[in-house]
Amino acid sequence: MKIKGRTFILTGGASGLGLGTAQELASQGGYVAILDRDEEAGKRVMSGTFSYSKSVRFFTADVSDAENLEKAVDAAVTWTKETGKPLGGAVSAAGVAWTAKTLDRSGNPSSISAFKTVMDVNVIGTYSLCSLVASRLAAQPLDKLNEDGERGVIILVSSVSALEGRTGQVAYGGSKGAVASMTLPMARDLAPWGIRVVALAPAVFDTAMTAAISKKTKNKLAAMLEFPRRFGQASEFAKMVSSVIQNVIVNGAIIRLDGASRMGKL
């Protein structure tokens, strides 16, 4: 699938990996509908990073609120009709992290409420976006120039924590494991409609989530990487998104972006 002239819906696009992806897709002639619950961050990127861009638009959306998310997706689809740039797919980059051991030092259980929030955003929010975007893609006529009959691609964001969750990552690792497990069955579900589904599983990247990590912990994490021994950059994640969009044979896969690392428990 070509990026140029197509619109991609991107959740969590006002910061981190999502913002890097928005910049990459826009630089290649794509149109990007950024969905994010942080309205202030959305205003900042639209008045700064994309201040002169007509190919990027911001929509306030909370992926954990199904009704709110559907309104935002429909608004983005309406925008595609205004621009004449058809929907090409979505990148589900919205996510939250929460670290807590199953039991604290006194033997008390961790917060069920916080655990549920992680699941609502990372799992339910991801599935909600996928189902909404898939239904809109399925309603679009096939591109006559596309010999494979591809209507679009949906890219999920899992994590190496899905398989190598560190201490205190039961909620986060569990949620990203669920996202990874969705990938193949969803790809099979949507294959008759010409829609691909691929998951990316990054290790440690420079984002708002990792900014709060202590220098000592960052050094330990970097030491687990084989090469390069540094945190990944949003631009590197974005390049993989770009490659997946353009390579139609990639489907139902979980692709690690991890510097050959295998995370320890810390």
Automatic annotation (TrEMBL):
Domain Ketoreductase span(s) in chain numbering: 6-203
Protein name: 3-hydroxyacyl-CoA dehydrogenase-like protein
SUPFAM superfamilies xref list: NAD(P)-binding Rossmann-fold domains (SSF51735)
Pfam families attached to this UniProt entry: adh_short
UniProt KW keywords: NADP, Oxidoreductase
InterPro entries (UniProt xref): KR_dom (IPR057326), NAD(P)-bd_dom_sf (IPR036291), Sc_DH/Rdtase_CS (IPR020904), SDR_fam (IPR002347)
MF (Gene Ontology): oxidoreductase activity
PANTHER family, A to Z: 17-BETA-HYDROXYSTEROID DEHYDROGENASE 14-RELATED, SHORT-CHAIN DEHYDROGENASE/REDUCTASE
Keyword NADP: yes
